[in-house]
Amino acid sequence: MNKLLTPLTFPQGTRIKNRFMLAPLTNTQSHEDGVLSDEEFKWLTMRAEGGFGLTMTCAAHVQPEGKGFPGQLGVFSDDHLEGLKRLASTIKMNGSVAICQLHHAGMRSPKELIGQMPVCPSDNEKFKARALTTKEVKALRDDFIEAAIRSEASGFDGVELHAAHGYILAQFLSPEINQREDTYGQSLNNRCRLLYEIIDGIRKECNKNFMIGVRLSPERFDMKLAEVIIIAQELMTSGKIDFIDMSLWDVFKEPEEEEFKGKSLLSYFTELERGNTRLGVAGSIRTPKDAERVMSQGVDWIMLGRAGMLHHDFPKLYEDNPRFSPIEIPVTRDYLLQEGLSDKFINYISKWGFTSELSKNAE
Asked: What is the DSSP string of 53-118?
């Protein structure tokens, strides 16, 4: 049987109907106070309706000062609960597992957006960010945990900790960005401490059947592949998380670091011992052939970004015809609207050539 269409069970018992998951995609569609908008609700629930086994929000920020982009979903206040409950229940109503991605942009929070100097593990001149005090690091930890509790109260099946792409958890992991001299800096164990404390806190405060995942990216943003391999290995064999989401930008590429070339970047993670942890991957998986090729290399599930934007029902299309040909960009603005993207989302992605047409807001 085609593995992409088989169910997958996670360590704490949650079962997804297939191996297709919606990648957490920046979409700038919600309200500026973090409250869920009808536009973001439509975008996400259409993917659940379209057959994705797991539907994940994008980067819900856990502190107001952790906002990374306009129109970002929030999970730092009880004011967000009504919208989050509506979203989670509708995703699950359509037979998809609902995951809330927890995020803080750290030094990548624009000052003009948050109204104050952004924060970072250490002072950062490039981003004009200030170092967090040890007390503030502990408050950040607690706010990630509170966001998970809030997500569970909203009905989500679990959370993913966004420790990739140079955001704050990745900033703590980085040997270049993190220059702290307390217990959250210097050695790799210390740089991982915040992430591990958040995981332990969620495990303690949430029900045992609440899923925890971690997103990692092994390159760019001052990360070292050798260290990310160690982190991924420790997480997968810890028995504390349910899945790892490796964001590779291109699942078929070789590593950028010279000493690791000669085989695919993905292989460095598929060959690791996993315990019961499930391994998923994202990065330029755009066609059925791509999806099958990745699955054949030993991952447990795949995450679709661009493909999920262009076809809200990619899993159903694949189930009906595993050789279907996805539409190619550029597409019309009307096509994207029909696929559940709002003008705000279309504006945001226009710089990547999705459509050559201006949205109404840009005309």
From this structure: SEEE---EESSGGG--STT--B-SSGGGHHHHHHHHHHHHHTT-EEEEEEE--GGGS-HHHHSS--
For residue 97, give the nearest of 43, 53, 153, 155 by alpha carbon.
53
Q: What is the Rg, in whole angstroms, of the alpha carbon atoms belonging to the chain?
A: 19
Q: What is the DSSP letter of 360?
A: G
Element (H, E) at 261: none
**Residue 285 near residue 307 (C-beta atoms within 8 A):** yes
Contacts of residue 8, defined as CB under 8 A and 6 or more positions apart, other chains included, come to: 15, 16, 18, 19, 53, 278, 300, 301
Rounded distance, CA 303 to CA 19, Å?
A: 8
Task: Give the residue extent of every domain in the chain.
Answer: 3-284+293-304
Q: How far apart are CA 233 and CA 248, in angstroms?
A: 16
d(CA 191, CA 84): 31
* pLDDT tens profile 268-313: 999 999 999 999 999 999 999 999 999 999 999 999 999 999 999 9
Q: What gap in Å lies between CA 175 and CA 178, rounded to an integer?
A: 6
pLDDT band at 202 (very low <50, low <70, confident <90, very high): very high
User: Within 10 A of 25 (CB to CB), how many other CB atoms are there?
Assistant: 22
CATH fold, domain 3-284+293-304, is TIM Barrel (3.20.20)
In terms of Cα–Cα distance, which of 10, 107, 96 is closest to 57?
96
How far is it, in rounded angstroms, from Cα 254 to Cα 266? 8
Backbone angles phi, psi at 202, to 5 degrees: -65, -40
pLDDT given at position 1: 58
Look up residue 151 and give its DSSP letter.
H
Q: Catalytic site residue 167?
A: yes
Parallel/antiparallel/unpaired status of strands 158-163 and 97-103: parallel
